[in-house]
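Hey, resending since the last one bounced:
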Amino acid sequence: MMKTSIIGFPRIGAHRELKFAVEKYLKKQLSLNELVEEGKQIRKKNWLLQKDNDIDIIPSNDFSFYDGMLDTAVMLNVVPKRYKMLGLNDIDEYFAMARGYQNDAGDVKALMMKKWFNTNYHYMVPEFNDDTEIKLAAEKPLNEFREAQALGIKTKPVIVGPFTFLKLANFTGQKKMIDFADSIKKAYIDLLDKFSQLGPEWVQLDEPVLVTDLTVEEISLFVDIYRDVLKEKHGIKILCQTYFGDIRDCYETIKKLSFDGVGIDFVEGKNSLSLIEKNGFDADKVLFAGIINGKNIWRNHYKKTIGYIDELKKYAANIVLNTSCSLLHVPVTLENEHNIDAYKKYFSFAVEKLHELKELKIILRDTVFADTEEYKNNVELFKTQRYIPNKEVQSKIADLSDTDFERLPVRSEREKIQKREFNLPVLPTTTIGSFPQTKEVRDNRFAFRKKQINKEAYIKQNKKFIADCIQLQEEIGLDVLVHGEFERNDMVEYFGENLEGYIFTENAWVQSYGTRCVKPPVIWGDISRRQPITVDYITYAQSCTKKLVKGMLTGPITILNWSFPREDISLQESAFQIGLAIRDEVLDLEANGIKIIQIDEAALREKLPLRKADWHSEYLDWAIRAFKLVHSGVSAETQIHTHMCYSEFNDIIKDIDNMDADVITFEASRSDFTVVDALNAANFATEVGPGVYDIHSPRVPSVEEIENEIIGMLKKIPIDKLWINPDCGLKTRGVTETKASLKNLVCAVKNVRGRI
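The structure tokens again:
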């Protein structure tokens, strides 16, 4: 009988218990013991859920108070001295690395933060200095194994693999990956030695970086590390777990190493099956087959999956049914959804994916599987028609031509026209869009949602927030203003709520980073705009000031990438449908006198294929066109902005330039402003605003700090091309720190202008 396993389970809790506990701890409203206990209760619930669903190989150490890569850095003693010098206890030092730290005792920035491969999850980037000493310094994986064992559950400890950890790290000195190979080997060998005294059957080492492009030297380093680590297994079975793609560059290499199991993604791994068909699979290894989609929320099609398993059986003697990746990327459970009963039968969140694994195990052990109730019910589900196609939308997509994707006149001509039109000072200042979502803002939205106030009262209060926000920005001295986005719960969900073809959940939260959770809407059918979405609020904001106010929209690629997409049509078609809907909004804003319109594409990089050879053919060509479709119809006098954050953009800078926006703002402060060098090297033609301070940290940057950042950028970016702004929206920040930070930003700009 086939066994079942998962790679990891969501750690936020069904009701976001972890988010609220951590935030209370950080506000000193919860003790350390209470925080630790909350984590323990979440882990217990997760393990028992898996046990109740007959999961055979249950993971541990997939829990984290903030991020798994950060946990691994602490475990391996990769803690930069600036944090150790703060003299904090272990947990506060941990949070200082994640969020930065600022008080009378010290002021340090947080570690860099980047997107986790092609997901909307963000990881903390380990930082290596030349004096970094890798050693086993914490025992979190061991402690959580013991914790599960005390509940009568023998788990599979899950740990970021040594190669992926090194490959994703930031090396700030002369030493590079290879210089730390021996010490990281020893640390993992020491860890396995300690595990040997506890007796797990399996230890899972996550090596997702194996699905990316690797050099010969990097593969050689992978082999060097594991050749030694695998000699010291101490009787433990070692699973090399990959996900998010196929392992075409190193399949043969992995075969030659003495792994006891290999986890392969058969959902996103488009070449995974052919690799096994061509090269076989060792009889002495266990194949952990990722056949349950860990990223999307649609029910598994059992007929297709069983056909896939039947093919794999020809080559692999031992198969474990597995998820394609960690279930961290989907909501916890459908049990908390009460308003989508007509749709729920089509959905599968994390708990429901456990049910699917259980049902597949039952079906596959039956010699006449087609007679099982589980199989027959699934077949009937996939026979039903899910939605009614929108023929008008489909006709518009079919009628698109090349002229719909090109804006005239060319950018260089538009730039001259806009500079005359706006007459802004050099180094114009602005923000990315959102302002703090205070308790009053949230209470107003909650009261409207619960029908405690009517729509008229809700809008009236939002307009008061907007007027106050405009006044605050004028007092601070910003040049281009925003309305603050007080009507928006989320930059994607808000637009989805105003588009046909979307459905919405109540509690389907997914962790994005740390305590930040998002609730992705679901694309159900063809997308179209019902009516103007933002025009009323934006035009009201503009009426409150003589300064320019930006219209704030979310772009089609970000809306698509931060939604749960359909699986019955291509991502390109969905992107073009959304693009046409947002295009209508852009043209309405322009018709109502809004001269600057920002169309955010924060998630442009997110779905970029992990193999460079696939970038254009499978994604960038149509993604860039979808953005251009949105703004190609506006006049030369209308300035189009976009924003991108928390991804590595350096290698697609030229493609970003080809989006043909007039101004692009980037996250830069938390990635050491490397994007500035890339802009300079690529002769970037678009005006740019690399973020001068990190908004994901509560620390307030000093005037001097921002001045230095601006002066540094001016050495690489022409002054007439440079805008000054924070690195992202201010929604998650407090009012006090926001005011202080923006005042320092404006003061720094004035100081720099005074020197010119």
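Residues 410-755 form a domain with the TIM Barrel fold (CATH 3.20.20.210).

Sorry for the duplicate.
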